[in-house]
Amino acid sequence: MVEFEYWWLLVLPLFFTFGWVAARVDIRQLLSESSTLPAAYFKGLNFLITDQYDKAIEAFIEAVQANAESLELHFALGSLFRRRGEVDRAIHLHLSLLERKELPYLQQQAVMAELAQDYLKAGLFDRAEELFLSLDDSRYKQPALRALLEIYVQEREWERAIEKATELERLSGIPFRKEIAQYYCEMAMKSILINDTQTARHQLESALNANSHCVRANVLLGEIEASRGEFEIAISFWKRIEFQQTDYLCLVADKILNAHRALNKVDEGILLLKRYLQTYKMQSLFNVVYAAILAEEGAESAAKLAREELNKQPSLQTLDQLLQARLMLPQADQQDINLMQITVRNAAGRSVFCCDQCGFHARHHHWQCPACNAWESLPSEPKELVI
Questions:
Q1: pLDDT tens, 279-330?
Q2: How is the chain split among helix, strand and coil, in percent rounded to 5?
Q3: What are residue 118's DSSP bridge partners?
Q4: 381, 283 in Cβ contact below 8 A?
Q5: What is the pLDDT of residues 254-293, one digit of tens each?
Q6: Rounded to two decimals, what is the model's pTM?
């Protein structure tokens, strides 16, 4: 049996006493700090909670005037200015703080970080970049890298964007493989525009090394080969997409068919697309196959294909295609079929690509969302927008 240590009876009351004293000190410190804050500060907080930003700005201006030495109050006011789009006032506020000669180094760094955010918000990228690069304090390293990455993407300086994304990936542990691959693709697009296909190939290979699932790289590699008349090689690149992200096959279906047509192997191309359609069942793939059969085999075969598809998966768009094929057949009741087509098209609405990050609607596919700038956030296939 373990013997009871009687000295604990003396120590335990001391622990309780120290805890009580520490609590009293913390409470007194909190009360002291809150008492130094001007009443306008709490008014401003209340206005922020109720989304009354104009009144919040007025209250924080009053608070800053009452306590001009508080950097935190200045930063809160500057953040409000930025949020309201009054960036010039935020810049003026933070520049006036930097003019204070008595500011310690760490506080100078804090003010410079705020001013850099002002310049970024104002679109003054050169000034923002200069300030972000000058921040030595480790607290600002990752936010500064993120801001610099945003600047380089906006200015389309892709090599610098790759450098900062790689550094940010190393520091944060957050992967940027998808973004880095897209930056290489952007560089390849510039090379293609000046007919430097050799450099473009190397850049696209770098994109695939960064992200083996980068569909865009194989799309572009195929387009380079097709432009040179190397259609077999082009098809081989586009076929790889099935093993990357099958949803994106619809983006190259037309390209695959045209390449087979250039090789006088259009039947082989249609068979390949039919296999994709049977396996992955995408409306966009069906549209390409339907158009090919209509052009190569005629209206009867196209109508049969549309009828079979309707039995598997009812769709207003497919019904419209069936009516289109039937309209081309002899002895078709053109007036009734035209009327049915008009009705179907009015009911169907329109097809759009919807960004899964911000909800932006686009008529055409984009690798980068035009609204929120997210990469690969638009689906490969449009969805029907019901009116």
A1: 998 888 988 998 898 888 888 888 888 888 777 777 777 767 767 777 777 7
A2: 75, 5, 25
A3: none
A4: yes
A5: 999 999 999 999 999 999 999 999 899 888 898 899 889 8
A6: 0.74
Annotate 168-236 with three-state secondary structure: HHHHHCCCCHHHHHHHHHHHHHHHHHCCCHHHHHHHHHHHHHHCCCCHHHHHHHHHHHHHCCCHHHHHH
Residue ranges per structural domain of the chain: 30-136, 298-347, 349-387
Burial class of residue 367 in the structure, from the number of CB atoms within 10 Å of its CB (0-12 exposed, 13-18 middle, 19+ buried)? middle
Helices (H), 283-374: 283-296, 299-312, 316-327, 334-348
Report the DSSP beta bridge partners of residue 375.
368
Secondary structure (3-state) at 383: strand
Q: How many CB atoms lie within 10 A of CB 255?
A: 19
**Opening angle at CA 147, ends 146 and 151, nearest 5:** 120
- CA 258, 263, 266, 270 torsion-angle sign: negative
Question: In CATH terms, is domain 30-136 a member of 3.30.499.10?
Answer: no
